Amino acid sequence: MRADGEAEDWRRVLTGEGEAFGRLFDAHHQRVYRHALRLVSSTHDAEDITAGAFLELWRRRDKVRVVDGSVVPWLLVTTTNLALNRRRSLRRHRAFLARLPRQEPLVPDAGSVALSRADLDVDPRLIDAIRELGATDQQLVVLVALEGYQLREAATAIGLSPEAARSRWQRIRRRLAGSVTPETLALAAEH
Amino acid sequence: MNQTLDPVFASGLRRELVAQVSAPTHRVRRRALVVGVGVMGVLTLGGVAAVAGSQPPGVGVTQPLAPPVVVNSVGPANVVLPPVPQGALYVRLELTCYDGLKCNTPGGGATRDADTGIPMVQRDDIPLTDAHDPRDAQRIPPYDPAVGVHIDVNPGTHWRLYAVYTDQFLPGPATAGDGRTVGIPAMIPPDLVPMVATNGRNGYVDYRLLTDAGHPTLTADGTSQPSVPVYDVDGTTVIGYADVSKPLH
Hints:
The complex is a heterodimer. Chain A folds into two domains: 120 residues, RNA polymerase sigma factor, region 2, helix turn helix motif (Rna Polymerase Sigma Factor, Chain: A); 69 residues, Arc Repressor Mutant, subunit A. Helix content of chain A is 70%, strand content 0%. Chain A has twelve helices and no strands. The longest helix of chain A is centred in the N-terminal third of the chain and has 22 residues. Chain B has one domain. In chain B, the strands form six sheets. A five-stranded antiparallel β-sheet of chain B has the order 1-8-3-6-5, with no helix packed on it. In chain B, strands 2-7-4 form a three-stranded antiparallel β-sheet, with no helix packed on it. About 13% of the residues of chain B have low confidence.
């Protein structure tokens, strides 16, 4: 979706135009879902989080931060927080989630979970390590190491100066050095 | 395990979302407040102890050293403040960002959305001299009038800056007549902060209406928001209204 088209759709969403929200959903739901899949252990949870992220996009429309005409960074940051705190953060949407049609079994399969993370090129130790970080560091690692944003882009998206982001990144690398494949973080730091 | 969202689930979710957005809203709109003639002179100085209005019951409230400044704009900018009044040691800033993910002033810290972690209001104390308060751990460079305060936000971000001169690093709030706190914002902002009404009277406005709870309409050059009531220090008597949507230029 072109950024100007997305900005126009977001403007229409704010006037209550449902189909404009549908177009934003069409454009971004797969990316949000894949991002959620990296962070949780079942397709069922990832579906819930995807639904929760878009519900939050509407519920918190007055506070959504649009970057360069796009709601994607906001969706990814929100998805991260929903995934890492999903029991608490999805509670308010329980009734809504119960209405949605399910095709996958609700019980996660440990084997398929491992497969999914391997398919997604995510070191599962990275996910576990991310959970131990503070909120800002979590967002930084997720946007850089999982979503492929450059460090300076991620800094912009979450409101850090480039210097502060570099400083945080160095600290994160030291902290995660024992639990994450060095290549993952080293590559990201070169951006 | 499938790496794409199940089409049946996606279709059902889309249908529910579109229905939610399309449903009539039941939000209660704030009553629009009619503004009288005149515009608040936010970029002019009023002199020392400009908000010296009535004292009791707000005894002990820290007074600003000049009328507070409120300006609104879009995107990164440098804001040149009015001349620094005599005796001022810090300028207190409250930067509210209504969109975008970046909301920075030279120092300070942000109030973040509880669910998303996104900064909503960045609050800051910028020294006006080299004589830092011992409690001021950041020790950022003093405000340079030739440069102004740098508003570091994403392009297109709508923001509002409230700035007030003070001779204290962390002025403590006093209690208004109705029990709310009143004074110059510090680490924890009070309920009511100094403001000059369009009729020229000095009083206090609701901090939340000034910042993140104002819900202004976002415009091409800043924000549009109905004028907010200005209270006497008792926190209940309305003495005028203030324009908080004045553009930067």
